[in-house]
Amino acid sequence: MTTATSITVRVPLAIRHRPGRKTVVTPMTDGVAPVATRADPTLVKALARAFRWKMMLDERRHASLTEMAVDEKVDRSFIGKILGLTMLSPDIVLDILDGRQPAGITLPTLLARLPSAWSEQRAVVHLGGIPPA
Length: 133
What we know:
The protein has helices at residues 41-58, 65-72, 76-83, 90-98, 107-111, 118-127; strands spanning 14-18, 21-25. By secondary structure, the protein is mainly alpha-helical.
């Protein structure tokens, strides 16, 4: 009979308290500092929610947006707006996740009316904003 063994893994890190959030700082590896990303956490979180909610609807976990809103404890109209992000061009989504979106692109900008054609979306996003109605 074998005896259970345990393994202890120690990872050197420092937790720094910054206004409103905690940041984990890892040491340099092989003399190279980790690459900082410019990814907008608000946009990344909104995209993650959008694709998660779309998957939940596709899998029929919820019969309606109203039912999903109750389960997720958010407003139904918010879910509807965020789900619109699933219609973004894949290269725009990748740019956002990599932090390469133009400086003027924020969540409110993307939630404003965007064209449905991907080529038109690219033109609007690379100009840094949504044209007025």
